Amino acid sequence: MQMRHMNKRGVCLNYKQLIYQLLFNYNYFNLDTPPNTNHLPNPIYINLKLQKKGTFIEIVYPTKSSDEETIVKKRIVNNFNVNPTFWIASEQVVPPTLDFESLFKSPFPEQAVRHNETFEKLEVVTNTNQKILIDVPSRPAAYTLEKLNLKGKPTLEQLFQSIPNCMDYKERDKHFKQGGYKLNYQSGYAPVEIQNRHKDPEDYTKKQHFIRQKQSQANLNLKRTCGVSYVKKSESEQKDVSHIFKKLPPLVYQCSSGCQPIAGYDEAFDNLFQNLLNGKNLIVFTLFNSSDESALREYLLFPHLRNKISRERVMMARKFLNLWMLFQDALCLVIHYNYDENQLLRPIQLNEQEDIKQQLVDFICESEISICLLFKKSVSGRKAFLKSVGLWNEGNDNSSVCTETQREDIQTKFVISVPKVPINSNSTPQSLFQEFTNIIQQQENYVLEARSQTQGPQTEQQNSNNEKQTKKKKRAKILSSTDVRKDGGASDQLINYLIKEDGNHNINTCSIRMEMYVAEEKWKSANDHNKDLLNAFIKRVEHHVTSSYLIKMMNKRFKANEKGQDYIIRRSNKIYEIPTDNVQIKQNKKSINWTSKFTPENFTNLQTYKLSKKYQPISLDILKMKELSFLKQPLYCITTRDSFAFDLITKVTKVKLGDRLVDRLDFFFEPNNCPCNFKSFLPMFPEYQVGAHAYVGYFTNEELLQMEKDIYEMELKGFDGHYLPMTAQISHAQSNHHSSVRRTKFFFGYRYMWTKCQLAEPHSMVAAGVRRDVSAPPLWMRNLITKLENDNVVPKKFINSIACNVYHDGKEGLAQHFDDAVRFKQPIYTIRVFSDCRLSFGSQFYGFCNGAFAVPLPRGCILCMEEGSYAANAIKHCVRPCDMTGKSAALILRQMHDQVTQEAVKYDEQVDLPCHMSTLSVEDNAVPFGEQKRLEAELLS
């Protein structure tokens, strides 16, 4: 077989002599047989990347001296102009008899062929956060089952038969069985036990990779609902790069998470609700566009900007019920109050003899308490929606009962015990799985045979029953008239809209996020009694709104949608709009300490205010009068919150690292407001330490700029195929004309499997999913580690794996996850570069909501997640896109356990490398080794 190489000048060379000289002349191994590493004096590693127009090669012999390695590398590249994607690496020094110049510089003339290398456009982000297009070598299209003329879900044998250069997977399994690999690495390290204790018990029953169980592990159970929150100013300064990056947005903390339920105030709060929101006093509010919470946070954080953000108009209404026409997507409605020493909340008391505009603006700017409603289009489950507004007919949920009864009958008649599979020294995960499957199949056949014998004479009746059961199951997915309560107050138009015989589980809604907001300094200075009262009152407001007001509002909205614009115009006169342009904004505001003591009697004789003058009705330009379809969106109060529950206490101390004086930031929970699962950590962290600390100011700006330059060069090399294939794992976004890179995960030293597809590989349990098939760390990374070791930032000889997560445009973050203790020895270090960021803990759902707490990561900081700590072992962390304002990157410095890395090296030498060698080919229809593994994993997953 003739192997050819295309260099950057378009010259293809014969590699047959090169390969044989390197492998045979130095007595390593024969190409036709897998290596026996027991007889190898120095193992050699070959990785060959095949492309349609050539085979690219680079040869590097890592030595003990990084300078020697660099010299060798430069010599190869300069003399041969190679595109470095083929590696031959050995731990021995460069063989002195190998003449690089004569071997590489002069191609054999009779074998030289011209080719034109093809490129494609890729959008990347520079270090100044600018998007540019660069040329990168064209990537071959991903191989798919359809491309291999395989449809449906073929077997593994069919897959490999369709691949012309298929891996010798039988030899792979043979070598794997002979290796004696461990399959359980989860004992002997304390953080592993800590993480297991905080795992959702249901995860133990799932048949999946234990790393997937870790990734799906239950977070701290922070059930959110309506509460009291405050907006905290952003800590971000973007030091030295503020001309490039915007500051991070402010954060919201639902500070009422630690409040206690308060009894005996329900009737009192009902009186207060009637007084404030049901006609006895004016409701003063503002309305402005807010597709997310950014405008709302700015509005609440800077009172002097409120009139500007609300477009210089204030609105008034008598009843909350009259606001139904204002509930629409991307709007924010803020109702304002002040703290009152006698009745907790005080509405506005206008003096109509004085300037009304000035009074309204002053009241808005001085308001310290507000009820905010944020509206957004969303999708909700029909049943969940009906339950939320009290329209679900609980007594008619027969379908699920029928299904459960049927399931119980089957289990009663045929009880199947869990099979016991014999295990011996030759057992593998595949053999055990196959044995287990065979036993299950035998028992299933037995059950089917028994059922056919007992029900044989009733075949027609059985078929009829099956059809009925199928219809019932289908019927269970569709709402009917019997599922909706007729006595729930819903109009016929609303009921007809909710009942759809289309089998759709979901319903489009206008979701309402209702929350009470207060000033941060006022909340922190208030006594616990006032905090509990405010929290209890807003929950009572939510109860009234969801139990009765939403139904009435939806009835009005559906009727208005049917009647048209005239109906809306006639009813808009119950909302008044007062322009507040050219009004002086006062900076000084009154301040009252929130320390009063209240009893239920405080809420009996409440003040009322009657409006005597008539004001201009609301202008309808804020309504989408041309499209009234928004009125048909049912209203749904959601429980998710884009906020955190615990505002950490930060302690700053000066420490000396090497010859540098830096700030050390330690983070603590408040003792009376900490997570419910923190108690077990108190013996090791008695001061309620989170278990993460950061060093700020260790790097100079010049050092950071050089590090960022090195990372950018590393990115370009990754796009150009410089590293081993699994080193750079790139996430793309495709547009019409080009693709743009969103996130790249670089692995050096060792990598770990983390995607669902990777973890589905046949031997993914080996070495806990750790592999060594990645490039060695670049010289600048090794120099960085040496510097950190010399300054006692990290322990000496501790780091053996470096990952670099580059968030190119800041639009794609990192999902919730653990740094699994089975793989990684703690502590774990992170260096943040390019721009400020945050690390969020305990976030839930795809939208990163309902977080527990966040740790700031300013540019250049070094974060350490401590061994055995709460932050590292009891709660997942993530990087949210909203916590980046542009390009950002993290260098993650970790140690992988010795037992894991030793297994990874052995697997790489004895199993992966021979299997890789068996796929080498220069045929146009050849499938690279990595693609073959991916296709196999997709079938197995």
From TrEMBL:
It comes from the Eukaryota. InterPro entries: AlkB-like_sf, ALKBH5. Keywords: Dioxygenase, Iron, Metal-binding, Oxidoreductase. SUPFAM superfamilies: Clavaminate synthase-like. GO terms for cellular component: nucleus. Residues 450-467 have a biased composition (Polar residues). GO terms for biological process: mRNA processing. Residues 450-477 are annotated as: Disordered. One of its GO terms (molecular function) is oxidative RNA demethylase activity. The keyword Metal-binding applies. PANTHER family: RNA DEMETHYLASE ALKBH5. Belongs to the alkB family. This is Alpha-ketoglutarate-dependent dioxygenase AlkB-like domain-containing protein. It comes from Paramecium tetraurelia.
